[in-house]
Target: Undecaprenyl-diphosphatase
Amino acid sequence: MGDLITGIIMGIVEGLTEFLPVSSTGHMILTAHLLNFEGDVAKTFEVVVQLGAVLAVLVLYWNRYMTILKDMLRFRFNEPNKLNAIHMVIAMIPAGVIGISLHGLIKEHLFGPMTVIYALIAGGILMIVAERTKRTVTAEETNDITYKQAFGIGMFQCLALWPGFSRSGSTISGGLLLGTSQKAAADFTFMISVPVMLGATSIDLYKSREFLTAGDMPLFLIGLAASFIVAMIAVVTFLNLIKKLKLMWFAIYRFVLAAVFYLFMM
Model:
């Protein structure tokens, strides 16, 4: 029963934080440290619950993905003011190449409580800089995003390979610096998160396949279910919040969280 409660807690943490600019991986590492839920099974569990959050976005954005897929099959890539598969692909390339190339080094050196604390602070500073930098908004909606902006956002997404930096935090900040509105950057972040996270979780699950035992399936399934349900709610809520809430507040939260965990670990 204790493991199942841990699974629920971890699933809720993942679902709540995956698409907020506060770093779900960082929260998962720090929460697991608090719950003393560590080791190979715990690392595999963290990958499984991420899949729950991915499925939530896939369900919520299903119609948009199907539209992009249909346009791709019909070779419709040049329609003005319309997000297409090329935007998605060029935004995924940078993090995909670096993530695959440095996967082992990232897992070995960056997945720890102290490195997460540093990343929370660094990511918060980037968000403040992005929000306060004067810029001309050229993309109010996702359909206004250019290929150049999509690739630039993909470059900023590479920062999320450092656990604690946050995928949504880095890409939204990048979008703001490159001339998109906050809402357009957030929407595009959610859109590209599914293929990126599916690729990352597939690699991690394959490498952790020996730890996927039948005895641990209840733990994995309850964590995945909790993550899926909470992520569904969180995505809808975040899209509404992003219209009103400044990134500054998320940055302050990150600084406070980093300070609390640093003091706790002293």
Q: What stands out?
A: Residues 2-265 form one domain.
